Prior knowledge:
- This protein is of the alpha/beta class.
- It has 2 domains: 17-143 and 273-319, Alpha/Beta hydrolase fold, catalytic domain (Rossmann fold), CATH 3.40.50.1820; 145-259, Rossmann fold, CATH 3.40.50.1820.
- It has 9 helices and 6 strands.
- A 6-stranded mixed β-sheet has the order 1-2-4-3-5-6, with helices on both faces.
- The two termini are 24 Å apart.
Amino acid sequence: MSSVGRRSLFREVEPFSFGWMPTSGPHEIYYEECGNPRGKPCVILHGGPGGAVNPTMRRFFDPAKWRMALFDQRGCGRSRPNASLDDNTTWSLIEDIERLREHLGVEKWTVFGGSWGSTLALAYAIKHPDRVEGLVLRGIFLLTEKELRWFYQDGASMLFPDAWERFLAPIPEDERGDLMAAYHRRLVAPDRRVQLEAAAAWSQWEGDTISLRGPRRARPSSTRKTSRSPSRGSRATSSPTRASSTRTTGSSRTSTASAASRAGSSRAGSTSSPPLDSAWRLHKAWPEARFEIIWDAGHASTEPGVIDGLVRATEAALVS
Length: 320
């Protein structure tokens, strides 16, 4: 598709409401609402697991027409306690979505999710079909062993051989038959240095494979931007390097905890680049859904072709 006439992100917006929602367990879920309080409701699900909401995620929807709800999943972002795996399963996250809907007084909403967020969106729609008005999904991930092995064991390694060598580096030869389990052991190891080495390599692999644009290298953690916190009017003052290391380790732990156990009652591994046939199989099972391949983009939601497709989809959802 030509870049001429492509849609771009909507203007930046700040939350008009935010807070922490209690759950039945030890977690408190950070959530925020943006856009028009009287607009069409939607919920935006971040990827990972181990990701978090960010200001760009608010910009796929027209803020004059949508009432957007976003939240950090258990153990993620501003949700408390950070990086906790206790009572942190796929099904508990689905119930958090439903609990948030009730908390906000929404009858039905459009569910938007990419990558791991598409997994949650589909599972939520299956369990609570009467509460879903529509789905907008990107980077389809169906939570299969085939997908996990393709990305973390044998598949994507052939597309990014240089990055794959960096991913293998922290793992001894005799443990490489099950890389997800090997990484998980290191990310929960008592030695902080072992945790950080594994977290850095895991995150580097995902960063190397998420986009088709630019050189495949991760930005140094000390230069990453901190976002404005709605609970304070200023930027975070903690050390960027230490804060980024904590976030990276927590994200990787959350991600591998369930990759190692293949989800089931737990959570799935992070999927920076699931194979395309996952989306095709979903389309074959659900032919009424619009299926679109963005050929000049990778997995990242911020690539121009993906932005264009998602904005067109949210615009279409307004009138569906």
